[in-house]
Amino acid sequence: MRNQISGTVDTKGATSGASQAASGAASGSNSPSASGEADNSEQPADQREPILIYNHIPKCGGNTLIHIFREVYGAGYVRIPTPNDLDDYSPEQLAAIKAISSHHTGYGLHEKFPNRRPIQICIVREPLERFVSRYNYSTTVTTNAWYKDTSHLDPTEFLEFLRTPPRSRRHYNIQCHLISKISRFEQAKEFIDKNYEIVAPIEMFDLFVQSLARYIDLPLKAKVSAKNVSEKKISVRDLSWDFKLEIYKDFQDDLKLYHYVKERFLKRFV
To answer: Which CATH architecture has domain 11-19+47-269?
Structure first.
């Protein structure tokens, strides 16, 4: 499978759409709509201190983005297992957080920061590509929790493994679920349009980083190398057409989400 995260990021090459988004963020005006047209209605500027919230969907380039945040924000970036882990933070510690992410938690982390202005971002992936990446990671990386149970499985057996409770609860249309808490495209689309500043497909990772850099004036180093890249045990082209259709049965709403996000991102930032 071809690596979808290239190794070069040039923030100077960000598009004019990203520049428009940055201008909107600075002035407090609305971001461009999904059609790419700005909302010209006057809105009061949100003067609250911003906090960058990354909704990390597994196997969607997250570790590479987290590496960037750690380099840029240092101790100001925090990665937590669940939002409840913040309950032990003092007000001073919470105020020091500039960017935050939580693996597998999904939408809602902003509720822990009621006095901050959330800048919510996310990356999605084509469902077949994500399934293959998850299979490769689970069956080859010895430190992951599923390795002992999955290392001997072929892709068909792995799909049945994911469909088996309790894993099935976080399997079907998981990208829609993590974006909106409901595994339906219509709900995820509504949440993206109302609550997220930038959502992009993983194959546009570099442009996503460029757009984010302009949007929040984020300083970046010139190059970003992919992190947590699994051994390529199989690729999408190795799957039979019938098995691809079987996988898509579990991710019909995620597939709609992927196409919507891709089209929306291209209209806004390209």
So the answer is: 3-Layer(aba) Sandwich (3.40)
